[in-house]
Amino acid sequence: MSTPNSTPTKKTKNNKNLLSFLTEPIEWVRMLSSQLNPTFIIGVFLIYGLGQGFSGSFFKVVSDYYWKDVQKVQPSTVQLYVGFYFIPWVLKPLWGILTDSFPVWGYRRRPYFVAAGVLGTVSAALVALEGKLAAGAALLCFLGVSASLAIADVAIDACIARNSIEVRSLAPDLQSLCGFCSGSGALVGYLASGFFVHHLGPQGSLGLMALSPALTIVLGFVIYENRTSGLHSEKKQTASESVRMTIRSMRQRMMYPQVWKPSLYMFLALALNVTTHEGHFYWYTDPKAGPAFSQEFVGVIYGIGAVASIIGVVIYHKALKDYAFRNLVFYGQLLYAISGVLDLFFILRWNLIIGIPDYFFVVIEETATRITGKIRWMPMMVLSTQLCPLGIEGTFFALLMCIDSIGALLSRWGGGVLLRLLHVTTTDFTNLWLAVLIRDMLRFAVLSLVFLIPKADQYEGLLPPEISENNMTVHVDEETLELVPINANTQD
C-alpha cells in the first residue's frame, strides 16, 4: 500500500529541492537588500556586473584582437601596453580622496559617476569611430576606458568596506555578491566578444564598450544621495584639512603589523604571478605553431573561464568562508600553482601525446585555473575590507586596492619583459614553454610568504582597539549612499 505513494512523494521532494535551488539566490539578494539597502545592491550589479564583468571581459578579448590585427603589435609590446591599463587603478586612492573630500554642487558621488561615464563613453567612441588611430592615441583611449571603470569602482568599494565593518557577518557575502556579479557579467562579455569581433571586426566591436559608461552616467543621476549645503571658504579649508588628516591617518595605520604584513603578501602574490597571457593568446590563434582557435572559440574559452570563476565563488561561499585566513590562502595558492602546470602541458602539446584534443584540454586548463584563482583570492578581498578603519574606510580600501593594482601592473610588465627576453614573437613561440615554467615556479614560491597572513577567522576583527575606529576630528554627517534600510529603526 505504501509503495505506490512513495513515487509521488519523491517527485514532490525533488521538485521542492529544485525550486529551493532556483530561488535561493533570489532570497539571498533579498536578504542583503533588506539588511543593507536596495540602492547599494543595484550599484554593485551595475559597477561589478556590467562594468568590471561585462566591459572588462569584452575589452580583454576585443583589445587583444585590436592590437594583433589592426595595430599589428608584438605580443611582448602588447603585454607592456596592458600594464598601462592598470595606471588608473593604481591611482584609486586619489579618486577616493577626491570623492570623499571634494563634493561638487553638494554631491560627493553623483558628479563622479557622471564624469566617469562621460570619460568612458567618449574614449570608447573615439577608438571605434576614428579610423585607424596611432598606437599612442589608441592607448590613451584605452586608458580613458580603464579610468572610467576605476573611478566608478571607488564609490562602490567604499560602501562595501563600510558595510563589511559595520555588519561583519555579511563581509564574506558581500565579496561573494561582487564575485557573482563580475563572473556573470564576464561570462556574457566573453561569449559576445568572439561573435562581435567576427562580424564587426575588433575596432567596430569596441563601440559596444560605450554601453557600460553610458549607464554609469544614468546611475549618477538616479542614485540616492543627500545633498550637502553649499560650499564656502571655511568648508573648502575643512576639505583640504581632511585630505591631510586622511593621508596622515593612512600612513600611521599602514605601520601596524596587522596591516602591512597582509598588504605585503597581497602585493608580492600579484607581482610574482607574472602573466604570459599575450603569448598564450597569439599562440592560441596561430595556424602553424598553435591550435589555431577561431575568434568565436577564443571567446568561448574565456566564457568557460567566467563560469569557472562563478563556480569558485560558489565553492567559497558554500564551503570555505568559515575557515581561517591563513589556511585557506595557503591551500588556495597551492592549488592555483598546481593548476598552472596544465598550461605547460598544453604549450608542450603533451595533451596530444596522451590523446586529449586541444579543444577539450583548454577547457580543463581554463576551468582549473579560474576556480583555484577565485578560491585563493576571495579570502584576500574579505581580509582587505576587515583591515579598513571606520571613517576613512573608502580611501583606505582604495589604498589597499592600489597596492594590489601596482602588483598586478608589475605582473603584466614582468610578463612582457619575460616574453621579450625569451624572444616570443608573433611567429616564434619556441621559448613560450620556458616562460610558462618560470611563471609556475614563481607561483609555488609565493607559498613561502603565507606566514604574513593572520591566522584569524574571517568573521573576527583584525585591528586592535586603538585603530579599529577612526579617531579623526573631521566627521562626515551624511553617507552619500544609504547603507541601511530606509525604514530601519535607528534607536538602540
From TrEMBL:
SUPFAM superfamilies: MFS general substrate transporter (SSF103473)
Keyword Membrane: yes
One Pfam family per UniProt: BT1
Keywords, in A-Z order: Membrane, Transmembrane, Transmembrane helix, Transport
Bilayer topology: Multi-pass membrane protein
Location in or out of the cell: Membrane
Domain of life per record: Eukaryota
InterPro entries in the cross-refs: BT1 (IPR039309), MFS_trans_sf (IPR036259)
Cellular component aspect of the GO annotation: membrane
Record field: transmembrane: 40-59, 79-98, 110-129, 135-156, 177-200, 206-224, 259-277, 297-316, 328-346
Family (UniProt): Belongs to the major facilitator superfamily. Folate-biopterin transporter (TC 2.A.71) family.
Name recorded for this polypeptide: Folate-biopterin transporter 6
Organism of origin: Canavalia gladiata (Sword bean)
Lineage, highest ranks first: Eukaryota, Viridiplantae, Streptophyta, Embryophyta, Tracheophyta
